[in-house]
What does this fold into?
Amino acid sequence: MSTEAEANKPPDRTRRAVILATVGIFLILGLVLLFLLVAVPLRETHTVVQKLRSRYSVRPMESIAMLGGPERAAHRLVTYLHLPRWVKTDRQTATYLLGFCGPRAVPTLIKALADTDVYVRRRAGSSLGRIDPKAKEAAPALIKALNDTDRVVRFRAARALVQIGPDAKEAMPALIKALSDTGQSVRHCAAQALGRIGPEAKEAAPALIKALGDTHRDVRRNAAWALGKIGPGAKEAVPALIKALSDTETTDPAAKSLRKIMPAAREAVPAFIEALDDTNMAVRSRVARMLGEIGTEAKAAVPALVRTLGDRNAFVRVAAAEALGEIGPEAKEAVPALVKALGDEEAWVRARAAETLGKIGPEARAAVPALAKALGDAYAGMRYAAAEALGGIGPGAKATVPALEKLLEDPAPPVSAAAAEALKKIRGSKSSP
It folds into this structure.
């Protein structure tokens, strides 16, 4: 019986052959499946990447769409970048494309910032900048990249930190250091990044003040802008920003920054007063207006503004008159000079002087005779300003009532309306709404 069973049993060699054949079939099927799931998509990814490399054949977002949209494209590109180095791939272009895939691409781009290929590092920096604030987890790697041996990598790392904004505050020490970089593009992005951080970057103020003297205009402009973004915490920058007003490249950002720092700039009124003697007309004009913005707390500047009423430039004279008006009754010592300005050769200077006398109010009653004369000025704007000023002085200007009544028939409606309003104020009636 046992002999018969042994005779019917298949030989070991046959059984092994069957097993090997089965394993072989499964192995082939596995390889086919692997090829379909991995190799084919990778080949497709490579084709899309190569198409993008030829800049005029396809656009980045079209490439992302070809790869199945941002989420799927990120997965495919990350897989593509993780292929062994001996596999021929276009890692630079793939790294560039990851910048259009959103936050999912950030970990791979962080790795790419340390790649041995400088062109991959460059692409990684620009891609992280494109992802904007969502790339904030890349800040430590970008900080490290600010010390890269390649200037373009440093520039793109700084630019990415600009886009990250306030979340990049941990980069402040590195950005302050970058303000001294040999590349001007790195310096101007470093200044911009510090400005984007905002008030928390006040420790960068001394370095930004130094950057106001940079040889490149973009660095100076961004430094001036950044100091304004820091705000009152950068009050130590006021003298340097006033000086920057004389630089035609930094005049506007310096002026805007001074206004933002203004709550703390009251302490710098002496520096503003000194700047009223600047040789640059634009500086004198802007400084005068800023003293006006400070208002009554700039009372100490009244003597200097009185002197500026005699400036050789009409724009400066107007700015000085307006500033005295903003200081208001505290500028009463300017009344004689303003009365003199009512005879200025420029009509608009005369009009501003009259308006200022009205803002000083009853304290300017010594100007009533001159204002009464101004009611007959050929310039309608001057007649209007004189009538308003007399209303501002109030009952102390009652001697001008006949002249104001005559002005009710003025051909210019605004002038007759101003005369009617002035009469109400002089006579003690309530103003019309």
In short: The domain at 27-178 is CATH 1.25.10.10 (Leucine-rich Repeat Variant). The chain has a mean pLDDT of 87. The two ends are 126 Å apart (CA to CA). Residues 188 and 218 are 6 Å apart (CA to CA).
